[in-house]
Amino acid sequence: MAQEPSNRPLAYRGEHQMKPLPFDPAKLKGLSEKLITSHHQNNYGGAVKRLNLIEQQLGAMPRDAAPYQQGSLKREELIATNSVLLHEAYFGNLGSAGAPDGDFATLVTASYGAREAWEHDFRLTGMSLAGGSGWVIASYEPHSQALRNWWAFDHTHGLAGGIPILVMDMYEHGYHMDYGANAKGYVDAFFANVNWDEVSRRLEAARQGSLASRDVPG
Amino acid sequence: MAQEPSNRPLAYRGEHQMKPLPFDPAKLKGLSEKLITSHHQNNYGGAVKRLNLIEQQLGAMPRDAAPYQQGSLKREELIATNSVLLHEAYFGNLGSAGAPDGDFATLVTASYGAREAWEHDFRLTGMSLAGGSGWVIASYEPHSQALRNWWAFDHTHGLAGGIPILVMDMYEHGYHMDYGANAKGYVDAFFANVNWDEVSRRLEAARQGSLASRDVPG
Amino acid sequence: MAQEPSNRPLAYRGEHQMKPLPFDPAKLKGLSEKLITSHHQNNYGGAVKRLNLIEQQLGAMPRDAAPYQQGSLKREELIATNSVLLHEAYFGNLGSAGAPDGDFATLVTASYGAREAWEHDFRLTGMSLAGGSGWVIASYEPHSQALRNWWAFDHTHGLAGGIPILVMDMYEHGYHMDYGANAKGYVDAFFANVNWDEVSRRLEAARQGSLASRDVPG
Amino acid sequence: MAQEPSNRPLAYRGEHQMKPLPFDPAKLKGLSEKLITSHHQNNYGGAVKRLNLIEQQLGAMPRDAAPYQQGSLKREELIATNSVLLHEAYFGNLGSAGAPDGDFATLVTASYGAREAWEHDFRLTGMSLAGGSGWVIASYEPHSQALRNWWAFDHTHGLAGGIPILVMDMYEHGYHMDYGANAKGYVDAFFANVNWDEVSRRLEAARQGSLASRDVPG
């Protein structure tokens, strides 16, 4: 008889639940309810379901499995886990509130010389992913207390030890329904909808850690 | 005239310095001084030098650069930055001290059912990378307060928002001089040299943060 | 003064031209003219333009360039070149004509046991790419005279020495405008539009070594 | 009872055999017998064994498998197949014979302006892969009748429709035993050992469409 889910170890539990959208999908600027709802339900929701299957399949891996079997599933686990986490961070930083000021403005100015230069770097990195997949992730680095923009070609990429603060989805499912190949139009819409209060909250949470040390992660 | 380095914004500064080995390379068990010294000097040191060039090249990117130019350099920045950070974490968790107990043992048991099951998962993931490149990274997840093992096929991969706690280099430059294609022999040697005190210290630092929230990163 | 284009060596020439659609984009079944035209003009056309820039930038690489500069551009060259070639192969095998019979049917039956089993494998590989990027490529292998389906996660992947015979684009720009997240609907539409006469022609050319044409695969 | 191997369809047969080294491994210049024998036996041989397991596992995939299960195995199939084919092409173009002249010299001069410029591009692409994984592949393009160098970051990459003519392995298992981190020393040794007669033979076969042999590329 199958083991009761609640008895499985955490890594193999496969009981992740979707988080609802933290805003009214009918009220974003320039991003349609149909697009946002499909993105949330199908792409994020699909990743949650897939992750649950993958974790349970990993838990059923025979003790003497060939290493490639482990590697191929661990890759799928990374893809699905990051897809879940980054989609949650993405929807979480939409909804239009506040302004890119305070500590966030201070950190990006320190890193890029000016807030406008930071935004140019973020947008241009996004445009380099147009027509394909990926994310642009502004991450706080506990080890240096800085914030920088990172290129991610797919769900698997990210700064080692970095805490995502502002996240933009560049997968085509994030904009094609509304913008087709006009990725620039989507990037404009993204910036018009950022919830800067949430961005500030994340940054504050990340900075309050004891992680601000040169020793962790490296 | 070239701008003085100290005036460049942080993201384009390109002044990273190597960190010395935190142990005597002649005293590891089953990993030769020649191997460790070459790994540290050539692979880690090479990444530091390359990262400095990449950051400065990014800072000199023309305002009207084609997006692919930005994307290709941002990819190189991610590769070199993670190579630097992960190598520092790797050397930092070698040197043989303490034992895999305390909070670490509690967390991996929660995730994998038993410490031995965690180690089997970690080792098998490592073996899946034998003959190629990559890392195995046991990361603390601030959003769930759990610790799991992650597959990384090259320097670019990692858990979004995860804090590397125990890191094993599976690039062939990490073992071929001593073990040739015998990756299993290397993985055994890695475990014989882990500095568990450092592992515990990292975990403690990661857990003391205010990051232990479902809201960051996602 | 800039060198005249026609004097540049072939590898650095950067004078690729778009090929027109080989069918009337208003007449496909279940794939709209708007989708096909955008796909051809923006995604394929964008790759042609980008490839031309990349080749010329490679030709201007300083003799003493850092290796990472070469590597990052060579990666972009591979992405853009394969995007051009695979898009040409994709549009080239649409337009609805003939049937999957003759040598093609013989080869896929030899490889998969039955033509239906081949199609199941091809479709399921396509579905594994839903929500992201990639291609499914049925390639002829000159060294074994067989034909098999290959997974490609992005433009860079492919069988060493394989000749693309039937190519399905799984980038979301290939279907999101018409099908949203319903990748299965798109795969059905793809199969309803295959130009099997062209597939047979390619296979014949591959087997006779008469591929020296601008038409196969690009 | 298990199906007899000889009854399985080709794609799921899993009966690939190793090819022996086409030269005496004790007689290469600057590449030790120990290195070459380990490379052939462990890395190439390991890929052959793994490929056989993967093909049989693909053949046992349930009809209703989740798409990610298909995708992850198809990725492993691509990695293992290309590792087999490229290793066969690599060992096949070592053994030191002939000179880079004739049609080969004509084609690379057409592409790069001069044979020396071709070799510089090939070597620099190789150096961009130092410290990690990958291949440099000079491929003949049937569609344009040209020959160019391609960057491959791992076993999965390659020119769509390209026929490998000269192949250099840049995985660290190809040189670390003899050269450590001195990748340049290895690249010099590679060029000292090229079997140009085989390179010419492959190019001739590619141009005549007579590749239907177990020898090219694998």
Structural class by sheet pairing and helices of chain A: mainly alpha
Task: Evaluate the radius of gyration of chain A.
Answer: 19 Å
Give the largest interface. Answer: A-B, 71 and 70 residues
- How much beta of chain A, percentage-wise? 5-15%
Spans of at least 5 consecutive residues with low confidence of chain A:
210-218
Q: Strand count, sense and closure of the main sheet of chain A?
A: 3 strands, antiparallel
Give the overall average pLDDT of chain A.
Answer: 93
Beginning-to-end CA distance, first to last residue of chain A: 45 Å
Give the overall shape of chain A, derived from the CA principal axes: globular
The topology string of helices and strands of chain A comes to: HHHHEEEHHH
Counting copies of identical and different chains, the oligomeric state is homotetramer
Number of helices of chain A: 7
Percent range of helical residues of chain A: 40-55%
- The total count of strands of chain A amounts to 3
Strand order of the largest sheet of chain A: 2-1-3
Question: TL;DR?
Answer:
The structure is a homotetramer of 218-residue chains. Chain A is mainly alpha-helical and 218 residues long.
Topology (elements, then pairings):
4 copies of one chain form a homotetramer.
Chain A: H1 33-59, H2 67-92, H3 102-112, H4 115-128, E1 135-141, E2 146-152, E3 163-169, H5 176-179, H6 183-192, H7 196-207
Antiparallel strand pairs in A: 1-2, 1-3
Helix pairs in contact in A: 1-2, 3-4
